[in-house]
Amino acid sequence: MAITEFTVKWVPSGKTRYWAEFRVGLQQRPEPEAARTIPHDSCSPRAQGSGEEDNSGGLLTQSLIEAIDIEWLKSITNLPILIKGVLTHEVARKAVEVGVAGIVVSNNGGRQLDYTPTTISVLEEVVDAVGGEVPVLLDGGVQRGTDVFKALALGAQAVLVGRPVIYGLAANGERGVRRVIEMLKDEFELTMTLCGCPGVMDITRSHVRTECDKLHSML
What class has domain 57-218? Predict the structure, then answer.
């Protein structure tokens, strides 16, 4: 029974702990106990040495990215480790320094903290900080094919789609999900055509204009 997905989530509850969730292939679903809570004293080395809670509301801060945690994760899985919740240049650089395989620019739906910046507005900052050393993915706000186009133009390697898929599922089950993905694909291809891009590699920074570009043009 091969493990196809391994995620470790920080749980800001009464006692600081890591929650390890194992998912296996659809052919052989795990028993409920397969998703288990790892006791505080058997977590990563850094978690063992601290009894403090994380009250960041799920937004990743630089203090949560430590090389000792990444090394621990690498010791228990061969899967690539990506950091999700990165919104600033500083955190992006820290993530690269500790050896992650990729970065997901995300504000976790904007539910934890009011006035959190939109992910598309900070994407270029994170991409510039990473400098091509690891892939950067965009999560949040992707509802049209044009959103996919803009993210790729600003340097993302891919996007994550959440709510539209859930809406499609609620509306028409599996067919609804397929239709949502088809709509995004069709809109994305149409945008590429109208922008003169025969392929994804032809999408460049010059195809979008941001607020910063407008300000520079006024100087």
Answer: alpha beta
Q: Which residue has the higher pLDDT, 127 or 215?
A: 127
- Would strands 82-86 and 102-105 be described as parallel, antiparallel, or unpaired? parallel
28 contacts: CB under 8 Å, gap ≥ 6: 1
What pTM was computed for the model? 0.70
- Answer positive or negative: Cα dihedral of 174, 175, 180, 183: positive
Q: Rounded to an integer, what is the distance from CA 16 to the centroid of its chain?
A: 23
**pLDDT of amino acid 46:** 55
- Is it the case that residue 64 has pLDDT exceeding 70? no
Q: Distances in Å between the alpha carbon of 211 and those of 64, 183, 189, 217?
A: 31, 28, 25, 10
Q: Which stretches within 16-162 are classed as H helix?
A: 45-48, 67-76, 89-97, 119-130, 145-153
Domain ranges of the chain: 1-55, 57-218
